[in-house]
């Protein structure tokens, strides 16, 4: 008679939604960092799951407290560096922890500019252009894996985008678009290779976001043509990896955010609606939407040289 046996192959536990605001005061100039942190720990046994033995559990409340204590002790110079501090703490303090993963999201704040154009010393305005992400994965005996990302970067341009010459068969209804409105919400994640103490994670994040906007929009007066979301996505990834040699790979998702031209042919009694009038009117449609994703690695760029 064959009896079933069971084995836990993966486990982790921790604290999510740990919100923290850190204020650093250098004289009259104050700097703030607001984060939401999640910690996940994996132990060297599963006795807590299998037998209810809690003796090795670092309580999730303890993990929450650790976030605040280490922020007080070391400050938060960047989400990536703070993630490294947290992960190293859990691995070094608790010998039975074999893996620590720390995920951080950043609330975007920017200094208010006064009427003379000067950045304010201690007053800030929330600027949610996008959400910055960071992640640190540390497995005992290995080097940490540091990743970063962007969420909810919503962009739109009203021309210089096309989509033509795609597969035409009995299932197709979509016409060729030689000039269309292009809108998307960018999600991106990139992983660093070798990092050192001189690594400026803040500047790197700005470079990534600026590169995304540059490829999407082009010069202010002329713009740049996009033959497809796929091509714009690849050119974005390539520019980022060329500008930041520490980035090992980058994944980007750019779903189509559709704005369809409103059909005014249903109102023949109202004159002029088929002309330019005041401009173009679109109807936003969020679902269904096209999903375009890809991952670019450094090997792919090397093979092109």
Secondary-structure element order, N to C: EEHHHEEEEEEHHEEEEH
Shape: globular
Structural class: alpha+beta
Q: Helical element count?
A: 6
Low-confidence stretches: none
> Biggest sheet, open or closed, and with what strands and sense?
8 strands, antiparallel
Mean pLDDT: 94
By DSSP, the count of extended strands is: 12
- N- to C-terminal separation? 61 Å
The fraction of residues in strands falls at 25-35%
Helix content: 10-25%
Indicate the radius of gyration in whole angstroms: 25 Å
Main sheet: which strands, in order across? 1-2-3-6-7-8-9-12
What does it look like?
With 305 residues, the chain is an alpha+beta fold. The chain has six helices and twelve strands. The radius of gyration is 25 Å and the shape is globular. The model has no long low-confidence stretch (mean pLDDT 94).
């Amino acid at each position: 008679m064959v009896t079933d046996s069971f084995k836990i192959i993966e486990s982790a536990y921790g604290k999510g939604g740990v919100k923290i605001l850190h204020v650093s005061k250098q004289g009259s100039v104050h700097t703030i960092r607001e984060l939401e942190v999640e910690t996940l720990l994996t132990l060297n046994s599963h006795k807590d799951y299998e037998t209810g033995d809690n003796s090795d559990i670092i309580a999730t409340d303890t993990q929450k407290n650790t976030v605040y204590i280490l922020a007080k002790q070391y400050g938060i110079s960047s989400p990536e560096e703070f993630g490294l501090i947290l992960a190293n703490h859990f691995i070094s303090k608790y010998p039975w922890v074999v893996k620590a993963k720390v995920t951080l999201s950043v609330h975007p704040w920017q200094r208010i500019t006064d009427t003379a154009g000067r950045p304010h010393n201690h007053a800030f305005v929330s600027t949610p252009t996008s959400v910055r992400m960071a992640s640190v994965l540390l497995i005992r005996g290995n080097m940490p894996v540091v990743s970063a990302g962007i969420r909810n970067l919503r962009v739109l341009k009203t021309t210089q985008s096309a989509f033509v010459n795609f597969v035409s068969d009995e299932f197709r209804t979509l016409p060729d678009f030689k000039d269309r409105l292009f809108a998307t919400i960018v999600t991106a994640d990139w992983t660093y290779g070798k990092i050192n103490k001189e690594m400026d994670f803040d500047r790197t994040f700005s470079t990534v976001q600026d590169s995304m906007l540059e490829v999407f929009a082009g010069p202010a007066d002329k713009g740049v043509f996009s033959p497809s979301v796929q091509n714009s996505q690849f050119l974005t990834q390539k520019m980022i990896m060329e500008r930041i040699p520490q980035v090992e790979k980058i994944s980007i998702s750019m779903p189509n955010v559709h704005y369809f031209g409103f059909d005014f042919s249903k109102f023949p009694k109202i004159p002029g609606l088929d002309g330019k009038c005041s401009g173009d009117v679109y109807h936003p449609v969020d679902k269904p939407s096209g999903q375009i994703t890809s991952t670019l690695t450094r090997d792919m760029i090397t093979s092109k040289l």
